[in-house]
Specification:
The chain contains five helices and three strands. It has a three-stranded mixed beta sheet with strand order 1-2-3. The chain folds into two domains: about 40 residues, YefM-like fold; about 45 residues, no CATH class. The radius of gyration is 23 Å and the shape is elongated. The protein is α+β, with helices and mostly antiparallel strands and about 90 residues long.
Length: about 90
């Protein structure tokens, strides 16, 4: 982030919305201030999708770790063997 360019007041955003959107899509998120304090973050759709996908991945990893700690997991070799078997079965069944 470039703080001097990535922080804009709400009045600036209102007056220059097209320019701010172009900046967001080219350079990344912009922090919007209101009454001199950070109030919101404006980000492009691609950045938002990456963020939510990253959060989803972290949740999956956390659930996996908890399962492994409970002894509910299986070794990676066994998991991949099962996947390979399912692929072969699907190919055989058309």
């Amino acid at each position: 982030m470039r703080p001097s360019q990535d922080i804009k007041s709400i009045s600036y955003v209102k007056a220059n919305s097209a320019q701010v959107l172009e900046q967001v899509n080219c350079s990344g998120p912009v922090i919007i201030t209101q009454n001199g304090e950070a109030s919101a973050v404006l980000m492009g759709v691609k950045d938002y999708e990456r963020l939510t996908e990253g959060i989803a991945l972290l949740k999956i990893l956390s659930l996996s770790e908890k399962s492994m700690q409970k002894g509910e997991g299986i070794p990676a070799e066994e998991a991949f063997a099962r996947i390979r078997a399912r692929i072969q079965e699907a190919k055989a069944n058309g």
